[in-house]
Every structure is written in structure tokens, then in C-alpha cells.
Amino acid sequence: MAATPARVPTDPSADAPELCRLGVGELTRRYADGSLSPVEVAEAALARAEAVQAAHNAFTVIDREGAIAAAEAAAARWRIRAPASPIDGVPTTIKDIVWVAGHTIRYGSNSPPVAPTHDAPAVARLRAAGAVFLGLTTTPEFGWKAVTDSPCSGVTTNPWNAALTPGGSSGGAAAAAAAGAGVLHLGTDGGGSIRIPASFTGVFGLKPSFGRVPAYPPSPFGTVAHLGPIARSVADAAAMLEVMAGRHPLDWTQPPGTMPSLAQVPWDFAGKRLGYWSDPPRGPIDREVQATVDEAVAAIQAAGAVIEPITLPDQEQLFDIFAGHWLVGAAARVAMLPPAAREGLDPGLAAAAASGAAMDLLEHVRATQARVAFGRAMDALLDTFDLVVSPSTAIAAFLAGREVPPGTELGRWTEWAGFSYPINLSQQPACSIPCGLTADGRPVGLQLVGPRGDDARVLAAAAAFAALG
Predict the structure, then answer these.
(1) CB of 134 within 8 A of CB of 167?
(2) Residue 33 in contact with residue 467, Cβ under 8 Å?
(3) Cβ-based neighbours of 112, under 8 Å, separated by 6 or more
(4) Total tally of structural domains belonging to the chain
(5) Measuring CA to CA, which residue among 327, 328, 329, 320 is closest to residue 422?
(6) pLDDT, tens digit (0-9, with 9 covering 90-100), for 373-410
(7) Any idea which residues carry the catalytic annotation?
(8) Same domain (yes/no): 76, 32
(9) CA angle centred on 159, ends 158 and 164, rounded to 5°
(10) Which of 230, 258, 315, 405 has the fewest CB atoms within 10 Å, i.e. the most exposed one?
(11) In this structure, is residue 376 part of a structural domain?
(12) Looking at residue 403, what DSSP letter applies?
């Protein structure tokens, strides 16, 4: 891989005020005993968001007025010991691709924006729970790629090193999380868009089981698209997920009935059987990333787990299966735009949409049938193994403003994101948790994948991994 800028090994939230480094549990404990007010925390978080915006361009909107009003309402509830939820008064951000009433949603695009009159279901639940919305975070145009730059908002950079990308497409959310600008961050993931930036910025990100968090309006990318949390800790992400989860009448794609509980049973790696997937379906894996993840897996093995090397079912077909869904989704999204708005699109998105538009119906049907077979095989695999573990990404963060690392033969983001998009096809819960740094200080993530519906297992295993030190 090409050389990267000099090492910056310090946690980028280290210079944030203490109030910006506290998690959900400590904040709400102190709200409850009266030693801290949500208004104090909101003021600190807003100041940090403004600093992070100046340094890294993580936000499209910082809503000081709305945040302070929400924090004052939360403070009033805590004073009478009647919090709306376990996250009442906690600073939160929303990706600028998810509907938030009262804000113009730009989708990272200069095409006509949307001014929703109501919240998306996940946002409505966060609002009802008392979350304090700091603002909207950056995304590439319509979330189409795994780095965060767009014709509308420009280039977002990584708090570990401002010369590097934070990944994407939830790159603004991950950059804000890493730097301490908010505690809870709502992202979306249609091919790795939560897990990739979590890996690149050294934070925790979870793509829940499909349907765990309601999605509305429906994504043009269909049932590969998920909503989920990004945070600095597993516990914070779990608290956010608990609030957002559950059926909603606007999301017809959710399964009927209820999903398995999110209540976590303490996880012990001893005696667990884990499949180690270390060979992506496309592109090379960086040797430093591989070595760092190998060390993490060795630590899990030392904790008593049985580790068995695996490849995924139908691995050689996975890129083509994903392309048969994702490229068609890109074409559908662009087709929704007025003709005049298509002229200023990100060239990569325009090319992807053109490729999708050129696919015939039979190609899409074949991709759908192949996806069904792959999903069935993945369910069977996770009946055999307690978890699948892998690198979150095949490479670490590279120069901002690029889709692929310069100086390589890679052409598109999908060639280095092969550990993420297959799990969108199969809809299992999957997280990225930090597992180390490269020699020049770039974070590396470990991916944990569990059975469909068993998000609690993934969260519990992630917490157990974090406790290994």
C-alpha cells in the first residue's frame, strides 16, 4: 500500500473536555444525582462539535438552538426524577441521509433537498427518549461509497490524522464519535457504511440484524441497507440500539412478530467455536491489518475459544451478487432525480448508476436468487459457529478525498471493503470493534458476525473482547 502520513497515535478524544468523554451510564448517573445537568453537557458537546467541524468537517448542520432546548427539557425531567429513558439528555447526532423533522436533508448532494415534516422512525424514538440532537453528520452523495466526500459538503477527515479519510459512508458520524463530539451517532450501512468508518476511526459500530431498526423512507438500495449505532463504547451503542429497535408500521420490510431480546447474557469465549474469515472475496489484504487482527484472534483463542479458519459460502460470487443489488439501487436513486440535477453528481456515483441501469431484469433476478442461496448458507454456517470473526476492512485509513489508496491498482471502494458487504447480503448482525493500531498509528477493526436476530450475542461478545484489554 502507498505510504501514509506520520503517526498520530493519541486517541483523538483525549483533548476533549471531560464532559465530552463520558458515556451514557456515567452521564445519566450524574444527571440522576444532580451533580451534572444535561444543559452543561450539551454546551460542552456543541463547543466540541464546532471545533471538530473546523478541523474535520464532520457536520452539515450544528443545531445549537434545538440542542439547548432539548437539553433544558431533559434537565427538567431529571430534576423531578422522571427521565424519558436511559439516554435522556445524551448528546446525539444523525447522519444527513435520515429524516429529521425541522431540518433540510441534503444526502450529501447538490440535488434538490428534502424538508421532511416528520422524523424517520429511529429518529422519532430517539427524540421521544430525550436524546439531545447536536446536528447532522456528513455523508458522500446518497451514501454511495465507503469514504466521505461529496459535491455538497466537501471532504471529511479522520480525527486520528487529518490527512486521512474516516471512511464512509457514515464518516461524519464516526469522526464525531472518535473526537468526542456527541455520545451516540446514528449511521446507515448498505455495504459497510457503519463498520468501515468505525474501523478507520477506532470506534465501535454495529450493523444490526436487518429489520431490528425500522427504516423509512425505504432505501433505493433495498434490503441490503440497515440503520445502526456508532459510539465510543459497546455499552453506549447497546443503549442507543435498545431505544431505536422494534417494529414500526411504516417499515413493511420488517419481519412480523418480535425479534429476540437485546438483553445481553455475559459472554465467555471459553469453549466457544469461532470461524476466522481472513480472505476477502476481492482485493488484497494489507499485511499490517492482517497481523493486527491475527493478534486479536490469538487473544480470543487464549481466552479459551476454538478458532477454525473458514471461507464464506459462494465467496467467489459475492461481489457479483452484491453488485446486482447495489448498482441497481444506485441507478434507482439517480433515476429519482430531475434530469438537470443528474449533471452535477459525483462522477463515481454516476458511473455506478449507469452500470446498474445497463443490467437487465434477468441479471437482477439471478443476483436475487444467488443472494437467497448465500443467505441460507450463512444461516447454516452460524448454526455451526458461535460467531464469525474477520478484519473489519482489508486496509487501514488512507488519504482523504480518494476512493482508493493512491499508488495501488485498486479501482473502486468495493475492492477493499470485501469483509463488509457480504454481511449486508445475508443480513446478520455485525460490528467493528477496535483491535489495535498499525505502526504509523492508524486504527484497525475486528469484525464480529452473529446469527440473524442475535444482536445481543454480538454486543456481549464485543464487550468481552474489549475486556480482554
Answers:
(1) no
(2) no
(3) 337, 338, 341
(4) 2
(5) 320
(6) 999 999 999 999 999 999 999 999 999 999 999 999 89
(7) 95, 169, 193
(8) yes
(9) 30
(10) 258
(11) yes
(12) S
